[in-house]
């Protein structure tokens, strides 16, 4: 996922960018409100989330949030030291999707980023969930939960199908292990890592396409469809 980090403190931005990169994010750093607005041209510029610090040198952070919302539906998470309820409500009224108060836990921030990205589904992804996915010789019918390879049906368990469907709706995108466990198993990563590895191995075997799901060392998995 591409993430726009709007933060005027270079040291804070560098440290946070390093953490986000380790979790599979492609981070673009904007140091001011104007840089952020320019980065979002054309509409959204492909960003999955905007992480917006309110303490900017050139413009009021709330004002920047309002301008972003007029340009794009990209989720915005405000980051600020203001912990009072009135400030949080004002931020949400200006169009923010979530609000994180400093100092924050990195794990919580990552969870909030994934939460807002799940709630805001792009139009093309919404359409995909209502139809059939074709990935080379693999055909995935999402409404009926049926999978076939070269016309031959493949019997998958419920979790195997959920895992395949998650990866297949965004081919080429790296999904973190923690994110997959959260979305497919609806639980935390602890103690479930081996289960994920077993399901990936089973999918590779049943589909007879070991290269279809690629392991991204230290991060997670991505689906490598023909032509992607």
TrEMBL record:
GO BP annotations listed: regulation of DNA-templated transcription
An annotated Gene Ontology molecular function: transcription cis-regulatory region binding
Pfam families (UniProt xref): Response_reg, Trans_reg_C
Response regulatory domain location: 2-117
Gene Ontology CC entries for this record: cytosol; protein-DNA complex
DNA-binding region extent: 130-225
Keywords of the record: DNA-binding, Phosphoprotein, Transcription, Transcription regulation, Two-component regulatory system
OmpR/PhoB-type domain segment(s): 130-225
Record flagged with keyword DNA-binding: yes
InterPro entries on file: CheY-like_superfamily, OmpR/PhoB-type_DNA-bd, Sig_transdc_resp-reg_receiver, WalR-like, WH-like_DNA-bd_sf
Modified-residue entries (4-aspartylphosphate), positions: 53
The name this protein goes by in its record: Sensory transduction protein RegX3
Lineage: Bacteria, Bacillati, Actinomycetota, Actinomycetes, Kitasatosporales
């Amino acid at each position: 996922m591409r993430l726009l980090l709007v933060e005027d403190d270079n040291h804070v931005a560098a440290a946070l960018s390093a953490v986000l990169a380790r979790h599979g994010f492609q981070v673009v750093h904007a140091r001011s409100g104007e840089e952020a607005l320019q980065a979002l041209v054309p509409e959204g510029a492909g960003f999955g989330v905007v992480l917006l610090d309110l303490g900017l040198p050139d413009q009021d952070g709330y004002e920047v949030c309002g301008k972003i919302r007029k340009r794009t539906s990209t989720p915005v998470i405000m980051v600020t030291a203001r912990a009072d309820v009135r400030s949080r409500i004002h931020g949400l009224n200006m169009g923010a999707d979530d609000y994180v108060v400093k100092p924050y836990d990195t794990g919580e921030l990552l969870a909030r980023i994934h939460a807002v990205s799940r709630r805001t589904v792009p139009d093309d992804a919404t359409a995909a969930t209502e139809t059939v996915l074709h990935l080379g010789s693999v055909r995935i019918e999402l409404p009926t939960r049926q999978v076939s390879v070269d016309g031959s049906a493949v019997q998958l368990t419920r979790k195997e199908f959920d895992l395949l469907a998650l990866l297949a709706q965004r081919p080429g995108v790296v999904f973190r292990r923690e994110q997959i466990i959260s979305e497919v198993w609806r639980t935390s990563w602890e103690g479930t890592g081996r289960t994920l590895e077993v399901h990936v191995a089973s999918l590779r075997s049943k589909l007879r396409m070991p290269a279809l799901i690629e392991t991204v060392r230290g991060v997670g998995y991505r689906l490598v469809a023909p032509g992607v």
